[in-house]
Sequence to fold (191 residues):
Amino acid sequence: ASGGRFDARLTDTQTLMGTAELYAAHAADTTVTGSESVENDARGASLNLVWSHQYADTGSTELRLAYTGYRRDYPTLYREVRDTVDLQGQWSTRLAARHQITAGLGYRRSRDETGGPPRAIIFTPADRSIDQPSAFVQDRVTLWQDRLTLTVGSKFEHNDFTGYEVQPGVRIGLKTDNGYFWSSASRAVRT
Fold:
């Protein structure tokens, strides 16, 4: 396995960060069959880029691009190839003295290929692409002396399994000299 990271200050208000990782492994596995050793290979990579722009003290913009891919092969038993690309944009600004508004858009595409017959474990369909657009908006309201805050917002997304989903949330937080205490309630959908 290997990887790396870089951080660059492009201007006084802009930064760029990137990470990359690669891995490969070969093993003999008996957990699948219980006794017979099955040779398998796994390899993958990930890449992350984050560009940020700060607007004085009032707000920021951030763009993220991420790729994750892996390949796993158990000959005659199972095979999977998966590539996932995530693109996200986020914008934040202060409105009046008490409101910090944050909004964003996202898009995820995940594509897989699984081995069909004569492999022992097969999936239907053998190949699939899943698209998942999303958006969110939240308002962080300062209630008392930059110590007590209330955050309300929601994420909106569409997925191929459950369709359109609204995922609201609310959180209250108190910053003290000894730490930060918070409580929240939300509706989340796992896809």
Summary: The two ends are 29 Å apart (CA to CA). The longest strand covers residues 38-55. The mean pLDDT is 91. DSSP finds no helices and ten strands in the chain.
